[in-house]
Amino acid sequence: MRVAFSAVPDSDLPSVDELLNIAVNALGGSERQGQITMVHAVQKAIEAEEHLAVQAGTGTGKSLAYLVPSIRHAMGSEAPVVISTATIALQRQLVDRDLPRLAETLGKDLPHEPTFAILKGRRNYLCRYKATAGWPEEDEQDQLFDPREVSATGRMVQRIQEWAEETETGDRDELVPGVSEQAWRQFSVSAQECLGATRCPSGAECFAELARARAGEVDVVVTNHALLAIDAMGDLPVLPEHEVVVVDEAHELVDRVTSVVTAELSDTSVMLAVRRVGRLIEQPLADQLMEAGEDLKALLAAAPAGRIDELPEVLGLTLALVRDSAWRCLTALGPRNADKDDPDKAGQRKAAFTALDEVHDTAVRMLEAYGHASEADRAEVVWLDEGSDRRPPVLRVAPLTVSGMLRDRLFGNRTVVLTSATLALGGTFDGLAGQWGLSDSKGWQGIDVGSPFDHPRSGILYVAKHLPQPGRDGLPQQYLDEITELIEAAGGRTLGLFSSMRAAKAATEALRDKLDVPLLCQGDDSTMLLVKQFAEDEPTCLFGTLSLWQGVDVPGPSLRLVIIDRVPFPRPDDPLTSARQRHVAAKGGNGFMAVAANHAALLLAQGTGRLLRSQNDKGVIAVLDPRLATARYSSFLLGSLPPFWRTTDPAIPRAALKRLSTES
User: Fold this and answer.
1) I need a surface site. Which of 52, 67, 107, 560 has the fewest CB within 10 A?
2) How far apart are CA 131 and CA 188, in angstroms?
């Protein structure tokens, strides 16, 4: 509960229309109908305590549309409003640009200037105690010994130590340039490893606790989907008490929550537990766990990668051995609050409990994933990720759906507003509502407030219906020829979105010497620098994969053509999506449409959304996969996209691109 400010009666506050008008005028914007509609919808949802899904196209000004009613509500409440985002870029935009400008603008007309804070997971803050105490060493035995890496890590550790003496927030993002995960782990703890503010000698000055305290005193708390999930799913609160959550980039919510509740088990995690517990219990017990880890290592090294539908007897026995050995070690450690008066020993015990709990509980989850009467009764899927020279094979377990968790833990006791440019798949919110757990709830609605862009006049959606269907053997020569002709017509200025990094690299290698314009490929340098170079040099083309489908914002003449090589269905051998598809089918649904087609529709909508980023932008989206025009599911996919002018005639986009290239 916030103590810095008291709640203000609603009648004493300006209306959302007045506040929006003040903000738009002060920030040099113009009135947008979609923004006004969204402001009213968000306010109505908050007042009625009903959930709301808002699709707001690029250029709507959706950040302002949810911030204005959120700030107004916070003024009349004793709890902050939580804004959750999927990407660091949007967090930084909100905290560094949008909220400071908005707070200064509205402060004169509100009881006080709106306050805000960013809150991250505990791992993102330096632990003062770990930085100064004898904490168990982070031993990376699974990595190959490389003197250059050891030396680089040592320099990073020294930099962190120097920074620790001067930082006021302990926030890892303050470290520029950044440091490796291996170096940072020596100065941070997870929530499970933390001793707790009351028991830790550094508790009174803990950076993570201070950040949480600040968050409890402000009007708006900015966080990410992962921390939102941890707060909702966990037994102990991480975020301050709140009644309203705004989930921006809501199309990524399910994937981020799934990542949080996915667990993994490998010989590395078992050996870490052995090292952590080794000096705290009798050696024979630790040796039993080590032997179980060695058995697991040998088994995983010989097993084929992929989904494990039925539990092999040898894997079941090995998981049971790991589970039972970890439990015996946990029992031997004794009470969890022992050594509470000795912080050093308490820290070592907490680290041991954390590592053992993870190993034991994950083995239990994996064993309990089997033995169900039918596929429809199965709740989780287990699969093996193959290793590499630097990483051992890893067993993973994940839920087949997170809808029940979200329904009960996120939507159950607060008002949630979900927004993105892409939420209505196939023209309806039903697909994502089902994944969120809202489909069987009466207390929600979905609205599409449109976009200020004139899509039919500004962009052409060209589907290369004459090309062959994409195969598994790389890009056909016809695709490479089509890409070449389109880029030549556009004079470069092309963003190539490919379904895999292999396809992006193959196209780059095949076309780099054929084209008269610079061609960059994701992986040549950091993605941020590549996008910057692409934006600044008009003829340049940029090819890449997944992060470019959603992470590129290049307004102006540097981007006139977006090429998509194929409909971005998940890989057929992807363990989680294939298991989810089969699970839906076992329950009587259409697994392909509910999982694979929804996945493809979301990515297509995000990818096509790269073209128009400002009112004056124009160009062509070229989808080379003819299935977007011919397959039975094409109407669903097309119904998920902005209303561009559509054609399958190859001459039309080429002529349009040539006209645009002469205008630039």
Assistant:
1) 107
2) 8
Task: Look at the block and give the residue holding tokens 């962190």.
Answer: 160
- Quote the tokens at residue 292: 């179980």
Q: Look-up: residue for tokens 């707790």? A: 196
Residue 13: partners with Cβ closer than 8 Å, 6 or more residues away: 72, 75, 76, 110, 111
Enter the DSSP assignment of 569. Answer: P
Q: Is residue 63 classed as helix, strand or coil in its secondary structure?
A: helix
Q: What is the mean pLDDT of residues 607-630?
A: 96
Is residue 126 a contact partner of residue 187, using CB atoms and an 8 Å limit? yes
Size (the chain), residues: 664
In contact, 222 and 248? CB cutoff 8 Å: no
**Main-chain dihedrals φ then ψ at residue 647, nearest 5 degrees:** -155, 155
CB 125: neighbour CB atoms within 10 A? 24
Within its chain, how far is the Cα of 23 from the centroid?
A: 30
Range with lowest mean pLDDT among 424-428, 437-441, 479-483, 505-509? 437-441
387 Cβ partners below 8 Å, 6+ apart? 300, 301, 393, 394
Average pLDDT over residues 426-443: 88
DSSP run (H or E) holding 48 = helix 33-48
CB-CB neighbours of 336 under 10 Å = 13
CB 213 within 8 A of CB 244: no
Q: And the tokens for 110?
A: 């509100």
Residue 523 falls in which region: left (phi positive, over 0), alpha (psi -120 to 50) or beta: left
The confidence score (pLDDT) of residue 235 equals: 77
Q: What is the DSSP letter of 638?
A: H
Query: Half-sphere exposure (CA, 13 Å, Cβ side) for 280?
Result: 28
Question: What is the dihedral angle through the alpha carbons of 420, 172, 260, 118, rounded to the nearest 10 degrees?
Answer: -50
Parallel, antiparallel or unpaired: strands 306-307 and 380-385: antiparallel
Is 398 exposed, middle or buried (CB count within 10 Å of its CB: 0-12, 13-18, 19+)? Answer: buried
* pTM, to two decimals: 0.91
| Of 10 and 409, more confident | 409
Residue for token digits 């008291």?
Answer: 6
Q: For the beta carbon of residue 168, count every other beta carbon within 10 angstroms.
A: 8
Contact (CB, 8 A) for 424 and 56:
no
